[in-house]
Amino acid sequence: MARHTYPDMLKTLANAQAIHQAEILESGYGYSDWVRNFRLIIKALSIDETSILDDIARIVKNHPMDNYLEPVVKLLIDKSKSGVDEEFLRIALLPRG
After folding, report:
1. What's the pLDDT tens digit per position in 29-80?
2. How many whole angstroms separate alpha carbon 35 and alpha carbon 25?
3. How many angstroms separate the Cα of 62 from the Cα of each of 32, 42, 47, 57?
4. Which has the closest alpha carbon to 2: 19, 17, 21?
5. Are 56 and 1 in contact (CB under 8 A)?
6. Do 25 and 50 contact (CB within 8 A), yes or no?
7. String of b and e for 47-63 (b: at least 16 CB within 10 Å)?
8. Among 20, 21, 57, 75, which residue's beta carbon has the most beta carbons within 10 A?
9. pLDDT tens readout for residues 80-96
10. Which domain holds residue 54?
11. What's the domain count of the chain?
């Protein structure tokens, strides 16, 4: 979510433009492996990233970070255009490391 809202943050903080938006979306700053994995998962599920931004924002706002997994799994299952095994998705979303 932060990578998609990066231009808004720059505009608000410094009235600046996000000239590196494509690089931020692709590489970001931190937890890049997890984000790359998440983006691959939603792409495999035929979910448009921008279509779930508001839902992800609600999850981030209403749940502690340690409790993101279940609402994200539910969201992706609800939004998926293809069948996906819930347990497989839960395991695929776990952080590596």
Report:
1. 556 677 788 889 999 999 998 999 999 989 988 998 888 899 999 999 999 9
2. 9
3. 23, 21, 22, 9
4. 21
5. yes
6. no
7. beeeebeebbeebeeee
8. 75
9. 977 888 898 888 888 76
10. 2-93
11. 1
Q: Are 7 and 17 in contact (CB under 8 A)?
A: yes
For residue 6 the two structure tokens come to: 């990066």
Contact 42, 3 (CB under 8 A): no
Q: Between vectors from CA 83 to CA 79 and to CA 87, what angle results, nearest 5°?
A: 90
Look up tokens 């994995």; give the residue. Answer: 37
Task: Count other Cβ atoms within 10 Å, centred on residue 72.
Answer: 22
CB atoms within 10 A of CB 7: 15
Q: Which helix (H) or strand (E) holds 62?
A: helix 53-62
* pTM score: 0.67
Asked if 45 and 79 touch (Cβ cutoff 8 Å), the reply is yes
Q: Residue 6 and residue 35: Cα distance in Å, rounded?
A: 15
